[in-house]
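Severity: low
Component: inverse-folding endpoint
Summary: output formatting inconsistent between runs
Steps to reproduce: submit the following structure tokens with default settings.
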């Protein structure tokens, strides 16, 4: 399927070939001309490729290699964790009294899969390619014990769902959604809901007590795409419809080939929702069975994830982008007004002052030139925060770049989590370098101690929170608890790779020549006049965080929904635009507030510029709290601790990221304006 990305990539590689030809032709030319001929066309090609390389239906790079199946090939189904949006605690499939193979074989998993609690195992469900199967019996439980019945009842009460995998596709229930197209007509769209419920609760008699019923019969629908030339098939869909049925059978029970009376294709007896359901109670006999139906589909293998990722609310995403763009335009107008009119007028007036008396009569940001570059309090901690912010920013951009190109598609389970952990680890070099440079600007002496703080601060907070929560998750016997082996790998990534890289970056920073400040700093600090209430620290800081948060809060809803409501999130193109708008907003709002602060002769701008844009994290956490009480149904203590613990870590990281952007923008702004005026 030739998607826009296909032509984009073909165009990109054609540009590379063009670049090589130009390099050979320009080999005998002078170096400047060669660079101009070779580099500029290549840059234009890259920019064009990135512009056209937007997310498109039916193309995921690299994904998984397609598997071809011949007629009658045996295909084995795998089982994954049980999940619930009410508890957020995943459990292994075989912690429940389901039919178990002997032995149970665990599939190899990457770091991201382990961290999110995936436990992929083999199962007794098997099928033959393109051969329908009816009333296949998995196993029979002669009598549910009190503990087994309680386990099923608890999982049904907490709305747990079973997850299975076939040919790397997760099992899903079909949901038909009614939407409106661009012309206002009603359109029905087929969507997927991952997994199927363990069971359901209902009352046997009207107004009676509710009982728990178990889904013990599954009807799988396998969609396949057939190659007409080779007669080979590829699986392009994995759907399930669960049933609860109290199976009856002919005595005696045959372990090899039992005969069911409630499901017998020879007698044209099939499972329907009208049959008596399987109740969950002590002593109940349970028979697990399944059907397999094959349907030929026009969906190609490259497009098989489209239904899973179908976005029915794309207009809301565009509204989010437009909303954010309006904020950026508003702030850009203010910055342009300050830069082109007010600031230009100030610089011209300051440079035209001829006498010291005239200078003394002036007021404004020039009067604090002798204090504006004075080293702030806790300068080492500020340097560490800025370095960590650059580390998070670089990790975010590289992750988004890979995600937009398709390398982190849902077909690659756990790929996103693995990439984020590894990229954050290797970006430790930037943390050490940037924090080292600012530590040197602040005239610090113990660069090794500062590098150690940079390497330990944010990772230490994350590690402490995750370890604390992991203990309680482990106490719940959940598969979400990090195993000891994975725990050791994370510690190794931190102490074996990240910390050495931070120290390496800090060492390179010690060798860097630091540019001198545009103005000299007085030995005696200038007295700061009384500030109006609206220019106080608390007011300006909390005001500065409103607009950056306003630029992202709509997209934040979809991110929280994908994390806590077990949904796919794959609109990384929208997310990248929102992140860029967020960075621009943080930079512009901080520049405006810093300018107003300096005009009021308050030179303590270092930390305030960081806090002004960083305060958007406060609104992020507040929004997360509102989301918890309005959208989620979490009532237990451990899931509540998990939610607010993870949201606290995310908010702290968001504070460091946005604060660093605001600080770096203000730092560049202050250096620029004070290097533009004459100081006697």
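Observed output (run 2 of 3):
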């Amino acid at each position: 399927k030739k998607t826009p990305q296909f032509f984009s990539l073909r165009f990109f590689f054609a540009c590379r070939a063009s670049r090589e030809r130009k390099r050979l032709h320009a080999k005998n030319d002078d170096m400047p001309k060669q660079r101009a001929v070779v580099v500029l066309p290549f840059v234009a090609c890259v920019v064009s490729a990135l512009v056209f390389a937007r997310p498109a239906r039916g193309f995921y790079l690299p994904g998984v290699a397609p598997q071809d199946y011949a007629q009658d090939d045996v295909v084995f189904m795998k089982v994954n964790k049980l999940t619930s949006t009410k508890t957020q605690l995943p459990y292994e499939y075989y912690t429940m009294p389901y039919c178990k193979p002997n032995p149970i074989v665990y599939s190899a998993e990457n770091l991201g899969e382990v961290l999110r609690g995936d436990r992929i195992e083999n199962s007794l469900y098997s099928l033959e390619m393109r051969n329908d199967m009816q009333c296949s019996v998995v196993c029979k439980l002669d009598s549910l014990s009190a503990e087994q019945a309680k386990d099923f009842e608890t999982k049904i009460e907490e709305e747990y769902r079973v997850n299975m995998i076939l040919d790397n596709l997760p099992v899903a229930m079909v949901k038909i959604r009614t939407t409106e197209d661009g012309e206002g007509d009603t359109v029905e769209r087929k969507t997927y809901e991952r997994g199927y419920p363990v069971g359901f609760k209902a009352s046997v008699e009207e107004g009676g007590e509710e009982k728990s019923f178990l889904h013990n019969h599954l009807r799988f629908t396998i969609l396949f795409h057939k190659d007409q030339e080779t007669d080979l098939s590829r699986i392009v869909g994995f759907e399930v419809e669960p049933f609860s049925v109290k199976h009856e059978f002919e005595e005696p029970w045959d372990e090899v080939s039992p005969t069911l009376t409630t499901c017998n294709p020879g007698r044209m007896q099939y499972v329907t929702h009208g049959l008596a359901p399987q109740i969950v109670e002590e002593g109940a006999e349970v028979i697990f069975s399944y059907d397999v139906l094959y349907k030929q589909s026009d969906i190609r293998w490259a497009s098989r994830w489209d239904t899973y990722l179908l976005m029915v609310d794309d207009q809301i995403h565009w509204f989010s982008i437009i909303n954010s763009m309006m904020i950026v335009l508003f702030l850009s107008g203010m910055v342009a007004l300050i830069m082109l009119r007010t600031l230009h007028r100030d610089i011209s007036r300051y440079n035209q002052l001829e006498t010291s008396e005239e200078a003394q009569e002036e007021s404004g940001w020039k009067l604090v030139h002798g204090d504006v570059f004075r080293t702030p309090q806790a300068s080492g901690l500020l340097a560490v925060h800025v370095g960590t912010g650059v580390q998070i920013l670089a990790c975010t951009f590289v992750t988004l770049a890979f995600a937009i190109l398709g390398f982190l598609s849902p077909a690659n389970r756990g790929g996103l989590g693995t990439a984020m952990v590894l990229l954050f680890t290797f970006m430790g070099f930037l943390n050490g370098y940037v924090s080292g440079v600012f530590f040197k600007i602040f005239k610090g002496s113990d660069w090794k101690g500062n590098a150690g703080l940079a390497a330990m601060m944010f990772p230490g907070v994350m590690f402490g929170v995750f370890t604390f929560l992991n203990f309680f998750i482990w106490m719940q016997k959940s598969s979400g608890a990090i195993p000891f082996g994975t725990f050791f790998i994370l510690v190794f990534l931190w102490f074996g790779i990240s910390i050495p890289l931070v120290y390496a970056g800090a060492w390179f920073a010690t060798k860097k020549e630091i540019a001198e400040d545009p103005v000299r700093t007085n030995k005696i600090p200038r007295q700061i006049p009384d500030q109006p209430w609206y220019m106080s620290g608390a007011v300006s800081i909390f005001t500065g965080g409103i607009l950056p948060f306003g630029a992202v809060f709509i997209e934040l809803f979809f991110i929280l929904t994908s994390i806590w409501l077990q949904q796919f999130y794959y609109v990384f193109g929208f997310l990248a635009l929102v992140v860029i708008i967020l960075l621009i907003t943080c930079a512009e709002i901080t520049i405006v507030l810093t300018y107003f602060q300096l005009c009021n002769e308050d030179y303590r701008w270092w930390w305030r510029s960081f806090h002004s844009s960083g305060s958007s994290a406060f609104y992020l956490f507040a929004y997360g709290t509102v989301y918890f009480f309005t959208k989620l149904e979490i009532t237990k203590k451990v899931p509540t601790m998990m939610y607010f613990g993870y949201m606290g870590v995310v908010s702290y990281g968001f504070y460091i990221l946005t604060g660093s952007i605001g600080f770096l923008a203000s730092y560049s702004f202050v250096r620029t304006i004070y290097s533009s005026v004459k100081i006697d």
